[in-house]
C-alpha cells in the first residue's frame, strides 16, 4: 500500500555527512515526545535512502528544508 506524502508521520533521512544526530537519537526523541504527550506515535514512517555515493550537499539541504514544510 503506497501512501500519499501527507499521510507520512515521520521522515528519516540517513545522511553520511551528519555528524551529530543518529537515527537512534531521532527515534529516541520521538519516543520521549510521545511519552511527554507532545506528539502521537508515528504510524507511517518514510526512510529516504539516497543514491550510491550518498546525497549531494545541496540535496541534503533541500531535504532538510522540506522537512519543515506543512504538506
Word description of this protein:
- There is one protein chain.
- This protein has 71 residues and is of the alpha+beta class.
- 32% of the residues lie in helices and 8% in strands.
- It has helices at 23-35, 57-66, and strands at 10-12, 45-47.
- The longest helix has 13 residues, at 23-35.
- The radius of gyration is 13 Å and the shape is globular.
- The two termini are 20 Å apart.
Sequence-ordered SSE layout with sheet pairings:
Elements: E1 10-12, H1 23-35, E2 45-47, H2 57-66
Q: Which descriptors would you attach to this protein?
A:
globular; single chain
Task: Describe the structure in brief.
The protein has 71 residues and is of the alpha+beta class. The chain contains two helices and two strands; from the N terminus they run βαβα.
